[in-house]
Amino acid sequence: MTETRRTVLEVLAGKTVTPPPIWLMRQAGRYLPEYRATRATAGSFLDLCYTPDLAVEVTLQPIRRYAFDAAILFSDILVIPDALKRNVRFEEGHGPRMDPIDVDGIRDLKPDGVAEHLQPVFETVSRLRAELPATTTLLGFCGAPWTVATYMIAGHGTPDQAPARLFAYRNPEAFDHLLSLLADISADYLVRQIDAGADAVQIFDSWAGVLGEAEFARYAVKPVQRIITSVRAQRSNAKIIAFAKGAGQLLKGYRQSTGADAIGLDWTVPLSFARELQQEGPVQGNLDPMRVVAGGTALEDGIDRILDVLGHGPLIFNLGHGITPQADPEHVAALVARVRGAQ
Ligand code: CP3
User: Fold this and answer.
1) Residues in CB range of 2: below 8 A, 6 or more apart
2) Ligand 1, residues 26, 58, 136: which to mutate, most atoms within 8 A of Cβ?
3) Is residue 28 in contact with ligand 1, taking CB distance under 6 Å?
4) Which of 76, 136, 265 has most ligand 1 atoms within 8 Å of CB, for mutation?
5) How does 211-241 read in b/e, with b if 16+ C-beta sit within 10 Å?
6) CA-CA distance, 240 to 243, in Å (whole number)?
7) Distance between CA 125 and CA 73 in Å, rounded?
8) Distance between Cα 299 and ligand 1 center (Å)
């Protein structure tokens, strides 16, 4: 039996696992030379996401190197607006771009054909489950409606998502409609990932931290709760991690109000507060990705403090946000070894 333990799933069920399982957000990415080599053969970034041979390969790269306890499907949260025909492209050095949407565009959005468009993603998931070691948890994911909507409204990334915040104040009904539509499409997308072989899924609300209290309830909590309720109505056993980056004190009660099994914590969450949140249920996080760039004592001290405070309860060790391209792969090896107690 022990050889088929999936420790990430054990933590999601509320168990304390020692040492805690570890994976890293954006673990497949530009800090790895083998990723850059595959990326160079793929054409566009979306081609990489939609070519199962290549997406499987880059998903497996960090597993081969570090034997992380979870693999995360290689894709992007913006495949949903791409499937909604918003002309998504990733320009070198500019990040993502798409056609900005307005009230009329929101009214005209049609979910038809989304699942067909995303078929290569489901194929990637099923091939991954077949190729991964039995002990590696396979994670699917989607963006939370708020975070996806911020890119759809602005047409690109912004430092504070001012365009989406302004749009929501000016056009609350249209904005609610957009979020509900994205929630329903995302729920269907996650169910299909689960059916293809994903053991658990994560919902990324990377821009939750720019919302005020009332807006957090309406635009972050409610649509994520809608996704989770819908996924569980269809697949009662679904295991779900909700990550609301930058939400601070608003994380109190977020696990219960959304219905998630575990919540992700960014590195600004004080460990004393993280410990309180862990009394409510499993947590994931929360090392500052810059500590991985720095290495040495900055890395070691950050790891040790998290393990001291959160290591005695249900914890999935992770970063507080994605690993950055400047991270040294050797520092990642040192991180994994230290969490596993080897150095
Ligand atoms: O974690 C993983 O290894 C799985 C793959 C993954 C990617 N994006 C690959 C990617 C996941 C889970 C995401 C999620 C994602 N994408 C989020 C939520 C999490 C977060 O980081 O906040 C967001 C906001 C996006 C949108 C996005 N995609 C942006 C803003 C960018 C450009 C910034 C950048 O780092 O270049 C991307 C591109 C992207 N997505 C890359 C990767 C590996 C880099 C593109 C490249 O290789 O050329």
Assistant:
1) none
2) 26
3) yes
4) 76
5) beeeebebbbbbbbbbbbebbeeeeeebbbb
6) 10
7) 7
8) 23
pLDDT at 98 over 60: yes
Distance 342 CA to ligand 1 centre (A): 30
Whether the per-residue pLDDT at 40 is higher than 60: the answer is yes
Instruction: Indicate if the alpha-carbon torsion angle 197, 200, 206, 210 is positive or negative.
Output: positive
Helical residues (DSSP H) of the chain, grouped into ranges: 7-12, 33-41, 45-50, 52-66, 79-83, 103-108, 114-117, 119-131, 145-154, 162-170, 172-196, 213-215, 222-234, 254-258, 271-280, 289-294, 296-310, 329-339
Q: pLDDT tens-digit profile of 169-223?
A: 999 999 999 999 999 999 999 999 999 999 999 999 999 999 999 999 999 999 9
Enter the pTM of the model: 0.97
HSE of 305 in the Cβ direction (CA atoms, 13 Å)? 17
- pLDDT, position 139: 98
Q: Residue 1: what pLDDT?
A: 47
Handedness of CA 181, 243, 71, 238 (dihedral sign): negative
Any idea what the Cα angle at residue 307 is, between residues 204 and 132, rounded to 5°?
A: 55
Q: What is the mean pLDDT of residues 88-105?
A: 94
Which of helix, strand or coil describes residue 127? helix
| DSSP string covering 135-161 | TSEEEEEEE-HHHHHHHHHHSB--SS-
Q: How far apart are CA 239 and CA 268, in angstroms?
A: 25
Ligand 1 contacts CB of residue 29 (under 6 A): yes
Evaluate: CB of 24 within 6 angstroms of ligand 1: no
What percent of the chain is modeled with pLDDT above 70?
99
d(CA 257, CA 213) in angstroms, rounded, equals 14
| Position in ligand 1 atom list of the atom nearest CA 24 | 1
Q: Which fold has domain 33-284?
A: TIM Barrel (3.20.20)
| CA geometry: angle 231, 237, 241, nearest 5 deg | 65
